[in-house]
UniProtKB/TrEMBL annotation:
<dbReference type="GO" id="GO:0016887">
    <property type="term" value="F:ATP hydrolysis activity"/>
</dbReference>
<keyword id="KW-1003">Cell membrane</keyword>
<comment type="function">
    <text>Probably part of an ABC transporter complex. Responsible for energy coupling to the transport system.</text>
</comment>
<keyword id="KW-0813">Transport</keyword>
<protein>
    <recommendedName>
        <fullName>ABC transporter ATP-binding protein</fullName>
    </recommendedName>
</protein>
<keyword id="KW-0547">Nucleotide-binding</keyword>
<dbReference type="Pfam" id="PF00005">
    <property type="entry name" value="ABC_tran"/>
</dbReference>
<dbReference type="InterPro" id="IPR003439">
    <property type="entry name" value="ABC_transporter-like_ATP-bd"/>
</dbReference>
<dbReference type="InterPro" id="IPR005876">
    <property type="entry name" value="Co_trans_ATP-bd"/>
</dbReference>
<dbReference type="InterPro" id="IPR027417">
    <property type="entry name" value="P-loop_NTPase"/>
</dbReference>
<keyword id="KW-0472">Membrane</keyword>
<feature type="domain" description="ABC transporter">
    <location>
        <begin position="1"/>
        <end position="236"/>
    </location>
</feature>
<dbReference type="InterPro" id="IPR003593">
    <property type="entry name" value="AAA+_ATPase"/>
</dbReference>
<keyword id="KW-0067">ATP-binding</keyword>
<dbReference type="InterPro" id="IPR050095">
    <property type="entry name" value="ECF_ABC_transporter_ATP-bd"/>
</dbReference>
<keyword id="KW-0378">Hydrolase</keyword>
<dbReference type="InterPro" id="IPR015856">
    <property type="entry name" value="ABC_transpr_CbiO/EcfA_su"/>
</dbReference>
Length: 274
């Protein structure tokens, strides 16, 4: 997925994207970070063709995105977006109907639709909710239903806008585990988030945005150990990086930065951090 010199302006507003040049490589979990107003959500909407650049172009798998009904239908079979607020995405009466909506619009046979729905519900661990009214679910349950509705389309790429926003710690951990399993099953994962701890522990590649531009990009360690980037972007340093930096200064930790507390504990237990 690639954006080349992409500009976008909302009607009557300021430019939300200002010359975005970005290539998202296959096989990498990507986290897009930045403060409110940085342009993260606007960028995600370009990835699935909901928004069209005022200038520049978007590419998927080497092909320039065309804003025809036929091309966008094919694109949205391959790239699925999970919105931050599940109520924005949900409209059907029951969970089964919600998850079945996309496959039905592909013109699939009834049995194929049913198989896709049941598989998606199984992956999300919500088979028991299939006959429940969708709008009477908890926020966390709704989030899982919206992900299932995207999975039922069998996309190659899953894009999450603030996936853990408003979730309690347990639900957040469950969702991160699900995203990891989806990645290991062969799905490309792209997330936008304010959560620097999530980005550092989960992603393979970090994109930092500010004022509609890409400020920096690189590996999690490269980005979050660069004080200039942290300062200019207004981001916080992840807690694990703060702790590891302190331990390194005291000579208690050596080698590469751990990405989570489990890795930190393991390094400290083995030869004093080597």
């Amino acid at each position: 997925m690639e954006l080349k010199d992409v500009y976008y302006q909302y009607p009557g507003g300021e430019w939300a994207l200002k010359g975005i040049n970005l290539r998202l490589e296959k096989g990498k979990k990507v986290a897009i970070l930045g403060p409110n107003g940085a342009g993260k959500s606007t960028l995600l909407l370009h990835l699935i063709g909901i928004l069209k650049p005022k200038k520049g172009a978007v590419y998927f798998d080497g092909s320039r995105v065309e804003y025809t009904k036929a091309f966008l239908k094919r694109l949205r079979q391959k790239v699925g977006l999970v919105f931050q607020d599940p109520d924005t995405q949900m409209f059907a009466g029951s969970v089964f109907q919600e998850v079945a909506f996309g496959p039905l619009n592909l013109g699939l046979e009834e049995q194929e639709v049913r198989n896709r729905v049941l598989k998606a519900l199984e992956v999300m661990g919500i088979e028991d909710l299939k006959h429940r009214p969708a709008h009477f679910l908890s926020y966390g349950q709704k989030k899982k239903v919206t992900i299932a509705s995207v999975l039922a389309m069998s996309p190659e790429v899953l894009v999450f806008d603030e996936p853990t926003a408003y979730l309690d710690p347990k639900s957040s951990a469950e969702l991160v585990e699900i995203m990891e399993k989806l990645y290991l099953s062969g799905k490309q994962i792209v997330i936008s988030t304010h959560d620097v701890d999530l980005a550092f522990s989960f992603a393979d590649w970090i994109v930092v945005m500010k004022d509609g531009r890409v400020l920096a990009q690189g590996s999690p360690v490269e980005i979050f150990t660069d004080k200039d980037i942290i300062s200019e972007s207004g981001l916080e340093m992840p807690l694990i990086v703060k702790i590891s930096t302190l331990l390194k200064k005291k000579g208690l930790l050596k080698g590469t930065f751990p990405r989570n507390f489990e890795q930190l504990a393991s390094k400290l237990e083995n030869d004093g951090g080597d």
